[in-house]
């Protein structure tokens, strides 16, 4: 029987500069005396969308140095959500965690996130909306407005406080129950919360503060925001029906108008090469 009980899945595209500090910090945190999870029980899976930026070589070097990390290079698929789903399907652990490659999800929180999952806590959620957490500290105003607006639009779908954080875990048994997952959607955590019908009592929320991107570029673009709105529309239809959908559409239109205006002010409404995630 495999000794791996936890899998950390990291979707990546052109994130080679962040992979070494990410992996070493994850295993460094797990190796601390007070860690509730042993590093020998954990694997890290990088799901890379054919970046061709040296990521494969970096992961190979880390493996030779003794870190339990491997990389899956996708050549025919693209997108954040489908990368997470691929990683979860290939994970050995019964407890699976998703985190960004850009270090904005600090690796020092990984032990607590992994340990928070159990047979009664099927979903772990890193939340920025807990007492004492500096919410989106260092972000420009327009990013904070967009983040909070996206969160408010998701409130009718789940009781989770921060389904937009992207730092989340799920038990494999729960993940395998999901049907009709939207692998093209932007926020796979929100899709899983809705499609797996996870009740509030089964969610373990772990407070965390966003870190600062060290390398690479932000993937937030106008195209990404439109994809999120399309995903919301599908989830509203899945969860609700009838007149509720009209209210959702009205809110979508308002949000698109407001977000597009903000992004045009800051020069962010750009659908060029970085706009995949």
UniProtKB/TrEMBL annotation:
Belongs to the glycosyltransferase 2 family. It comes from Dichomitus squalens. The keyword Oxidoreductase does not apply. It catalyses: a di-trans,poly-cis-dolichyl phosphate + GDP-alpha-D-mannose = a di-trans,poly-cis-dolichyl beta-D-mannosyl phosphate + GDP. Transfers mannose from GDP-mannose to dolichol monophosphate to form dolichol phosphate mannose (Dol-P-Man) which is the mannosyl donor in pathways leading to N-glycosylation, glycosyl phosphatidylinositol membrane anchoring, and O-mannosylation of proteins. Pathway: Protein modification; protein glycosylation. This is Dolichol-phosphate mannosyltransferase subunit 1. Its cofactor is Ca(2+); Mg(2+); Mn(2+).
